[in-house]
DNA sequence: CGCATTTGACCGGCGC
DNA sequence: GCGCCGGTCAAATGCG
């Protein structure tokens, strides 16, 4: 019983895409989980602080962390978001056995410390930007406790030098197969939480359309991708 | 030999 | 005041 090679190719293509989508789905689930945790912490902190009338400092919380329920807390969250405007967090999928803390984000970093923190058994590595002398940007890299396949990378500060615009693209290079920006990395234009969510969706589609081979897919591939996306869109 | 990394020591902020 | 914890420093070490 012969199966036409074109059908076989299609099936393989769909399988590959399915695998890719499953990876992305895992990344999104993880992100959602982290967001839930942070939102829970934030809301608890807010209700605690609002009782005592003491301003809440929410360093480390980012715009996208808060967008999930922004409509109900819009008024109180905005000042806190501005406090965190200089920091951002991304997730990078890596081999869980890889302990190098290396994230290929297109910048040069110099490691200056490593610590084991209380709530995460995995060591946290501290890096400084070494692309220009005196650049104040730092990043922290730590394996995500919820999913060992991901590194949590926290950037702080703004570069005092030119940053190649293509760096943003390198963030989702094959070496980091699922890199999901949580919020306002200085070189990514994420002006508001909703924009972040929209970008995320667009990335899913655009990554799919370029992830399968040379990026010059033929019409069949295109149709397969469309139907797969349509299928997923209907299913959600 | 120069530069990057490692790692224990140190410091400052915060809560009790 | 004390202890805990996260972040940084700096000497030792490794590597090209």
UniProtKB/TrEMBL annotation:
GO terms for cellular component: nucleus
State where the protein is found: Nucleus
Among the GO molecular function terms of this UniProt record, one is:
DNA-binding transcription factor activity
The UniProt record lists the WRKY domain at 98-164
**Keywords assigned by UniProt?**
Coiled coil, DNA-binding, Nucleus, Transcription, Transcription regulation
One matching Pfam family is WRKY
Q: Where is this region: Disordered?
A: 205-226
Coiled coil (UniProt feature)? 11-38
Q: Which PANTHER family match?
A: WRKY TRANSCRIPTION FACTOR 36-RELATED (PTHR31429), WRKY TRANSCRIPTION FACTOR 40-RELATED (PTHR31429:SF38)
Q: What is this protein called?
A: WRKY domain-containing protein
This protein's species is: Gossypium barbadense
